[in-house]
Design goal:
The protein is α/β, with parallel strands linked by helices. It is about 40% helix and about 15% strand. It has 2 domains: about 160 residues, Aspartate Aminotransferase, domain 1; about 260 residues, Aspartate Aminotransferase, domain 2 (3-Layer(aba) Sandwich). It has a 7-stranded mixed β-sheet with strand order 4-10-9-8-7-5-6, with helices on both faces. Helix 3 packs antiparallel against helix 10, helix 7 runs parallel beside helix 8 and helix 12 crosses helix 13. About 50% of the residues are buried.
Length: about 425
């Protein structure tokens, strides 16, 4: 019966879904249940989930506080859908909570259903506020799947021929492991930051609307630049009259183990922050938060999102903020992240296929290479590692331009025993692909 159900779902996907919807694994997993850091498939097999869908589970699957609030709302027939046209305590409450955790004087919010929509709104806001059109993005960067974000995208694997890229230019990524200038941390002079200045000087009028940057490049393979990179490009963007947009769709809500938003780790107060994924702990919630003057630049026009800020989604996002604070999950992200990093550094000694270990807190990337000198991407091996990790009851992710970066982003509530389970299972998986 289970196999018949899986075959039916696979057949339905093949017949009725876009072919871009490609599942993980040779034998796709049908997940039906979740609790905390674990998920179960239709046969009852239990997996440790260390990718959270796509970096979306922040406080654990089906957190009891969120479940309780949701059940209470259902019991009293709380309205499921309302819009900006009516008053909603949930929307207003979430906006106030975001303003409390945001750096600097960011206080004006706009709610969406996804990170793609949030980034669309951020770019619109920047262009309206500055009166300029040009936006600088990074190669290896990713900001979503709608029109403007796909134009911003720095990966050929995600781009389509028909997507317009008017008003967008790309600078080199701060990809230290594959430095485009062949530098090392010892002799780096932030040439990649200077490239942003050169790109503005040579491919724009000299004035820009904005630069959009992920503090750690997520889809790019958790590329983690030095903190001073963000400080330097912030100055360059300001000198060009632009707004600095920090895309925190994957890095936000304390995942890097230091601040609620990762850009604060670098001491930068951006003009706009976008978020999604972890802020909803799996619920479809996205948001933009910006300074008052930039939000006010849109005054006089009509613009709203039909489902953005709906009661159930807004309640979950507000509850996530409270849970992270009250359960001290940012501190836990730092502690467990350091523990995992030390564990992977031990694995690297035994498995030289691990070329680089990077990231912060509970956002960890392992770049796999065929040779540590040539750094030839081990793309097929990464795909096989995912299969072997699944055999060890671990659900992991992958990314990078070459599909050779293992991406790990467990819930911020993960404990030491679960980290040990992850490290033990990954060791066995590496043993299988390196025999």
């Amino acid at each position: 019966m289970v196999m018949q159900q899986k075959e039916k779902i696979i057949g339905q996907r093949h017949s009725f879904l876009y072919p871009t919807k490609v599942p993980y694994y040779r034998d796709p997993v049908h997940l039906v249940k979740a609790s905390g850091n674990y998920v179960w498939d239709d046969s009852g097999t239990k997996y440790l989930d260390v990718i959270g869908g796509i970096v979306s589970i922040s406080v654990g699957h089906n957190h009891p506080r969120i479940k309780k609030k949701m059940l209470e709302m259902l019991e009293r027939d709380a309205i499921q859908h309302t819009t900006y046209l009516y008053l909603s305590e949930y929307m207003a409450n979430l906006a106030e909570k975001l303003a409390e955790v945001a750096p600097g004087d960011l206080k004006k919010c706009y709610f969406t259903n996804s990170g793609s929509e949030a980034n669309e709104m951020a770019i619109l806001t920047a262009r309206q506020s500055t009166g300029e059109d040009m936006v600088v993005a990074l190669r290896h960067g990713y900001h979503g799947g709608t029109s403007t974000p796909l134009g911003l995208c720095g990966h050929s694997t995600w781009k389509f021929r028909g997507v317009p890229q008017t008003g967008i230019t790309h600078a080199k990524a701060p990809y230290c492991y594959r430095c485009p200038y062949s530098k090392t941390p010892e002799n780096c002079s932030l040439e990649c930051a200077n490239d942003v200045k050169e790109v503005i000087e040579t491919t724009t009028s000299g004035k820009i609307a904005a630069m959009i940057v992920e503090p750690i490049l997520g889809v790019g393979g958790f590329i983690d630049p030095p903190a001073e990179y963000h400080r330097e490009i912030f100055k360059i963007v300001k000198n060009a009259g632009g707004l600095y947009i920090s895309d925190e769709v994957q890095t936000g809500v304390g995942r890097t183990g230091k601040n609620f938003f990762a850009i604060a780790d670098s001491g930068v107060n951006p003009d706009i922050i976008t978020m999604a994924k972890g802020i909803g702990n799996g619920a479809p919630v996205g948001a933009v938060i910006t300074k008052e003057e930039h939000a006010e630049s849109l005054k006089g026009k009509l613009h709203f999102n039909t489902f953005g800020g709906d009661p159930y989604q807004a309640m979950q996002a507000a509850e996530v903020i409270d849970i992270i604070a009250e359960e001290e999950l940012i501190k836990n992200a730092e502690i467990q992240g350091n523990y995992l990093r030390e564990g992977f550094e031990e694995l690297q000694k035994d498995f030289p296929i691990i070329g680089d270990i990077r990231g912060r807190g509970l956002l960890i990337g392992l770049e796999l290479v065929k040779d540590q000198i040539t750094k030839e991407p081990a793309s097929a091996e990464t795909a096989e590692l995912m299969e072997k990790a699944k055999d060890q009851n671990l659900l992991i992710g992958k990314g990078g331009l070459y599909g050779n970066v293992v991406r790990l982003a467990p819930s911020l509530s993960i404990g030491k025993n679960e980290c040990d389970e992850l490290l033990t299972g990954m060791r066995k998986a590496f043993e299988c692909i390196t025999k």
